[in-house]
Amino acid sequence: MRRPAAIAAAILAGVMPAMAVEATVTATQVTQFNNAAVGEIVDKLIFRGGIAMTSPDDTFGGLSGLTITGPNHQALFATDRGNFVTGHLIYDDANSLFGYIGVTIEPMRNSKGDVLPRQYAKDAESVDTVYRDGAPVAVRVSFEHLTRVAEFKLTNGIPGGPAREIPIPDWLTDARTNETLESVCIAPPASAVAGSTLLITEEVLDEAGNHRAQLLGQDDHGPLSYQTSPVVNPTECAFLPNGDLLVLERGISMLNFVMNLRRVPAAEVRPDNLMVGELLLSATGGSIDNMEAMTVHTAPDGELRILIGSDNNFNDWQRSLLLEFALPK
Length: 329
Fold this sequence. Notes:
mainly beta
């Protein structure tokens, strides 16, 4: 059983619990977005609803990356305190997101199998699932500060065990700030760069002032970049099944969070190229929060949907939102 007082004390001491703990998550449905109701068009997408999540567990929060790791909508978050949060998304009879249940929280580990020792090493920002022969076998996680990419094995959709570090270029390893590796995503089979891992930086710029990026792959290995936009920086990426790339952007303007979602054609995701995205969605103010996490998945009715989540930075005045959208047919 979990001991809240002991875990709270461990957090204050900078040490996370070494074992997985169960967390109760309460979800309140979100039925409006930018004055659009569920099922209505908002910009170039359809709003499909969402949830606002809260928990009495002090380790729930900081949800910076999101991916699907197993059947029955098993969803995994990576947090910026170095934890994996795993549970199942549930839907109501109208196929709207209703809750997040069966939640466990477990600390990430280093290559020796030890819990990450300090916050400088724990700042996970993005996660994506590695598939082999169509089955989810691992997740890849990107980190800021101590900039790196690590892979963790999946067992029944739950990551754990020692990290396996993925080699990245020296220019990226040497960029040790909190504005480095915000985005990691793995190209699907339909992509021209299938199986390659794409990394996009938040604030590491090339000579032209665009965001530096990198493809990690045996045949598709090399640098590329993502076009800079005013106010916002890229904070997450996810591929559509056809190979097109979605890029989530986040910023602050007039003390309000800003969110953009762009779609980059599959043909632009290649080494030595500048990726330029078409704007699909833009929002600011009360409809959003600090939007950092994103994944693409299939809803219970078979519809392809885009899930976008927010990192509350463990602040009481911020929210852990999970919003869902669909592409018009």
